[in-house]
Design goal:
The complex is a heterodimer. Chain A is of the alpha+beta class. Chain A has 3 domains: 6-115, Cytochrome c-like domain (Cytochrome Bc1 Complex, Chain D, domain 2, Orthogonal Bundle), CATH 1.10.760.10; 126-174 and 242-263, Cytochrome Bc1 Complex, Chain D, domain 2 (Orthogonal Bundle), CATH 1.10.760; 190-236, SH3 type barrels. Chain A is built from 8 helices and 7 strands; from the N terminus they run H-H-H-H-H-E-E-H-H-E-E-E-E-E-H. A 5-stranded antiparallel beta sheet of chain A has the order 6-5-4-3-7, with no helix packed on it. Chain A starts with 5 loop residues before the first helix and ends with a helix. The model of chain A is unreliable at 1-29 (pLDDT under 50). Chain B is mostly beta strands. Classes of the chains: A alpha+beta, B mainly beta. Chain A binds chain B through residues 1-2, 44, 47-49, 51-52, 55-57, 59-62, 89-90, 92, 94, 96-98, 180-181, 183-186, 189, 208-211, 228, 235, and chain B through 74-77, 118-127, 192, 375, 381-383, 409-410, 412, 414-417, 419, 421-423, 425, 427-437, 456-459, 477, 479-481, 483, 492, 495, 497, 523.
Chain lengths: 267, 531
């Protein structure tokens, strides 16, 4: 598709020779240019081969989002290359047999770059952050390493899935920027329903189809409804069952908490 | 010999419904006279996908139960429409296998699978197959590696196998072939690889090619001047869904796909005929009789492959032979099917790209709707306001039923170089999915396209619809629901949670005096009947 051209190979060789007799900065510029060129080529290959389904920026379309550090079917680079070339049986992901391994690796490198979270500034202490986590009774709604109660997201590998900026926003303004699932639906979306007998139930959406709706309320109780039996369904945007901790914790506590959450990588 | 005849006679008496098909062309022409069978992909040549069986009604549809389920042997999307004739169901399984099933039990009578190379090229679409054609004593299947294969109707043994095009260059088949009088007609997939699309007709007995119609005119042919430079050579124009046929006019109607590259129109200045058009061909010669282009110089991948429907109706007080279609570009069109004259267009879904249409049917395109490097938000998305799945027309209600995708997308444009058998698209999209999109089944006035009712779906669907003389419309959802709506009002009458994505078109047949409804979900083909 976009094979490494002879021009590029000669440019690589020449840039290598050039470094013998030229100042370091010039070589560095050439190497950077090469990296940029490779990166650009990887991106173009991704757009051409994958953009139709996964979106040109990997934010999903017909296919799932790819701008995340952990991909369900591709825990490592080898698996990702294999999937790019062979597809995933039983899903809409076709094999790309026409891609040779080097091209598949270039696409894989671009896919991985999509999932690298913004690093942000981590000024806090993970150890102190863990204490903040315990102080805030966060385990009443989150599980880490098998301990806690499930209502909000499981956090054992949250440091891999989310960047610090996202985590900070989630602690200070939960509901403001809800994550999207593989099909582009908001996770943990709060829905308020009114039943035929006037009973009101508020919870996060667990699942939904044309005919039914499943919610989990703040008391961790599941509710399942047939939509035509409900008097009203209100999807509450920008709201979360989780309270804001912006005022409950000091700025230092929040920094420490973000450092702690960012350190959670399932190790 | 006498013993053999005796045995056959006994078998015939014992199993009257399991006689393998002797499927004449005349039976397909008169398909409406034997509604207990489903003889061609869309139910009849006019592509109504409407059954005149009326045993299952508004009043009893809620009693439907599963009669049997057939599980396909390899996972993947089931997009087949089974054909049913004389006690046997013929269907395809992903990617290109064929199975013949006993209609009473769902047990397999025979099956056939091609040996597909492990480097088979299918760029821009999943490895699916939408069904077979039947004619006389043969079953016809078009395979992913661009072969057309004729199978013995009794055993599945190969009668002939022709390589229609080079799969290494991106040519492939996903459609159900169309059986005409002594001919099998097919169209190709591969519009994302810069192919030169065509429609082919093959001698049903021998597999010899009778004619080929190129959807991209060559040098010296009318329409070649609608392509700048040599861009026609990689102009795409795939023909990946089954056509429609009018035996009385002896005209074959076929939808043509997008130009290539999909989203970079700079590389192919001009209207790019006959992409995004419907063409009317002489089925004996493949000669073009007329064409109508819905989306000149398309840059959004709005194929016009959707299966068109033939309707005879009064138009301005005069009886007229019409062809109607809900196009991927979000407009519903009414044309004269004898001449191709444009009569009417009406948006049936949200669209932000056209102000309307000129008198000759050319769309008046709004500014700033082209794909760009930064992305341009346009409705509908590249999957279109509808897509491959079939619409339906009920002569009883005079409504056109269509599964609609309400979804926008940011369209992007990039450079691309052509290499045979490689993606040739020049961009992509970022769709507004999830909670920003939804689906619907809509009932449209067949002459005006005006929306009479809507049944809203949680997500944009990938399954078609079938209407019935019992006053029903059947459909399915991505979340695995199979449902029946009131054909007059769109009200929900029945729903079955099948637990796997529905990506096929429903069909119906009758056996032993009972009507059945067939559709697929997940890896299963479900057959429903009354208790």
């Amino acid at each position: 598709m976009f094979p490494r051209s002879r021009t590029v190979i000669w440019a690589m060789i020449l840039s290598g020779l050039y470094c013998i007799s030229t100042p370091r900065s010039v070589f560095a510029q050439s190497a950077n240019e090469q990296l940029a060129e490779d990166s650009d080529r990887s991106k173009r290959m991704f757009i051409v081969s994958c953009g139709r389904c996964h979106g040109i920026e990997g934010k999903g379309g017909t296919g799932p989002r790819l701008d995340r550090p952990i991909l369900q079917y591709a825990p490592d680079d080898e698996a990702l290359v294999r999937i790019i070339r062979s597809g995933i049986g039983g899903t809409g992901m076709p094999g790309n047999w026409f891609l040779d391994e080097s091209n598949a690796r270039m696409i894989a490198s671009h896919v991985r770059s999509l999932g690298r979270g913004k690093t942000g500034t981590l000024s806090g202490s993970p150890e102190k952050g863990e204490a903040v986590f315990e102080k805030g009774d966060c385990r009443t709604c989150h599980i880490i390493q098998g301990k806690g109660i499930s209502l909000g997201p499981e956090l054992t590998k949250i440091g891999l899935r989310r960047g610090p900026e996202f985590l900070r926003k989630a602690v200070q303004h939960p509901g403001l920027d809800l994550p999207l699932d593989r099909r582009g639906f908001k996770e943990f979306l709060v829905i308020r329903v009114v039943t035929e007998d006037g009973r009101e139930v508020r919870g996060v959406r667990i699942n939904e189809d044309t005919f039914t709706l499943q919610l989990l309320d703040v008391d961790k109780q599941h509710h399942s409804f047939r939509k035509h039996e409900l008097r009203a369904v209100h999807k509450v945007g920008n709201e979360s069952l989780m309270p804001s901790y912006e005022d409950a914790f000091s700025p230092e506590d929040i920094n420490n908490l973000i450092a702690y959450l960012s350190s959670l990588r399932g190790e | 010999m006498r013993i053999k005849i005796l045995i056959l006679s006994i078998l015939t008496m014992v199993m009257p419904s399991m006689l393998f098909a002797q499927m004449s062309y005349e039976r397909i022409v008169n398909a409406d006279q034997e509604p207990e069978h489903w003889l061609t992909h869309s139910g009849n040549y006019a592509s109504h996908r409407h059954t005149t069986l009326d045993q299952i009604t508004r009043d009893n549809v809620d009693q439907l139960k599963v009669a049997w389920v057939y599980q396909v042997r390899r996972s993947g999307f089931i997009e087949t429409t089974p054909l049913v004739v004389d006690g046997v169901m013929y269907l395809t399984e992903p990617p290109s296998s064929v199975a013949a099933l006993d209609l009473r039990t769902g047990r397999r009578l025979w099956s056939w699978s091609p040996v597909l190379p492990n480097n088979v090229v299918s760029i821009g679409f999943p490895s699916v197959n939408r069904g077979v054609a039947l004619l006389d004593d043969m079953v016809y299947v078009a395979t992913l590696n661009a072969h057309l294969v004729a199978l013995d109707v009794k055993s599945g043994a190969v009668r002939w196998d022709v390589e229609v095009a080079d799969n290494a260059h991106g040519y492939a088949f996903t459609l159900a072939p169309l059986a005409l009088d002594g001919k099998i007609v097919v169209g190709v997939s591969g519009g994302e690889t810069g192919i030169r699309g065509f429609i082919d007709a093959y001698d049903a007995k021998t597999g010899d090619r009778v004619w080929r119609f190129y959807t991209i005119p060559g040098v010296g042919d009318p329409g070649n001047d609608t392509w700048g430079g040599d861009s026609w050579k990689t102009g795409a124009g795939a023909t990946w869904l089954t056509g429609t046929f009018d035996p009385a006019l002896n005209l074959l109607y076929w939808g043509i796909g997008n130009p290539g590259p999909d989203w970079n129109g700079d590389m192919r200045p001009g209207d790019n005929l006959y992409t995004c058009s419907v063409v009317a061909l002489d089925p004996d010669t493949g000669t073009l009789k007329w064409h109508f282009q819905f989306t000149p110089h398309d840059t959004h991948d709005w194929d016009a492959n959707q299966i068109p429907i033939l309707v005879d109706a009064d138009w301005n007080g005069q009886p007229r032979k019409l062809i109607v279609t809900a196009n991927r570009n979000a407009f519903y069109y009414v044309l004269d099917r004898e001449t191709g004259e444009f009569l009417h267009a009406e948006a049936y879904a949200r669209q932000t790209w056209a102000k309307g249409h000129e008198k000759d049917g050319r769309p008046i395109v709004l500014p700033n709707t082209e794909p760009t490097e930064e992305g341009t938000l346009v409705y509908p998305s590249l999957q279109g306001a509808t897509n491959w799945f079939s619409p339906s027309y009920s002569p009883q209600t005079n409504l056109f039923y269509v599964a609609v995708r309400e979804m926008g997308a940011y369209y992007f444009k990039t450079d691309v170089d052509y290499e045979p058998g490689q993606p040739f698209m020049g961009g992509g999209e970022q769709a507004l999915s999830g909670d920003d999109a939804y689906g619907a089944i809509r009932g449209l006035d067949v002459l005006t396209g005006e929306k009479k009712w809507e049944f809203r779906l949680h997500t944009p669907p990938w399954a078609g619809v079938m209407s019935t003389a019992g006053g029903l419309v059947f459909g399915g959802t991505n979340e695995g629901n199979i449902f029946a709506l009131d054909a007059e009002t769109g009200g929900l009458l029945w729903e079955f949670p099948a637990g796997g994505t529905v990506r096929t078109n429903p069909m119906s047949y009758a056996l032993d005096g009972k009507q059945y409804i067939v559709t697929a979900a997940g890896n299963g083909v479900f057959v429903f009947g009354l208790p």
